[in-house]
Amino acid sequence: MANGIPKAYKKFMTDFPEVGKAYEALGAAVHGAGPLDEKTRALVKLAISIGARLEGGVHSHTRKALAAGATPEEIRHVALMSLPTLGLPSMMAALTWVNDVLEKE
């Protein structure tokens, strides 16, 4: 994964450039539509990925949260906070996925 961008995403952008541009424009519009700062948005997106059990999303949003200034402790706390809502197995999966990225940094 060069530059932190997954190969599958690069292929998607190459194969479907117009759809990719529209997707990125939608993301920019959503991010700019409210008062949350970049770090908070990154942690929220991480939490959404954890709740949806999206391993790739958790990896991606962990990297984005780090880039936005979140600490490893803050990121692990987001995973830990999923415990009461999602249960131990889901939280353990999320923590494993977060640590996949944090241990490479």
Walkthrough of the structure:
Helix content is 77%, strand content 0%. The protein has a domain at 42-105: AhpD-like (Up-down Bundle). The protein has helices at residues 7-15, 17-32, 38-51, 55-67, 72-81, 83-86, 88-102. It has seven helices and no strands. With 105 residues, it is mainly α. The two termini are 14 Å apart.
Which percent band covers the strand fraction?
A: under 5%
| H and E string | HHHHHHH
Shape: globular
Mean pLDDT across residues: 95
The CATH level-2 architecture of one domain is identified as Up-down Bundle
Give me the Rg, rounded. 14 Å
| CATH topology-level name of one domain | AhpD-like
Name of the top-level CATH class of one domain: Mainly Alpha
The biggest beta sheet reads: none
Summarize the structure.
With 105 residues, the protein is mostly helical. It has helices spanning 7-15, 17-32, 38-51, 55-67, 72-81, 83-86, 88-102.
Q: How would you describe this structure in keywords?
A:
105 residues; mainly alpha; AhpD-like; 0% strand; globular
Topology (SSEs and partners):
Elements: H1 7-15, H2 17-32, H3 38-51, H4 55-67, H5 72-81, H6 83-86, H7 88-102
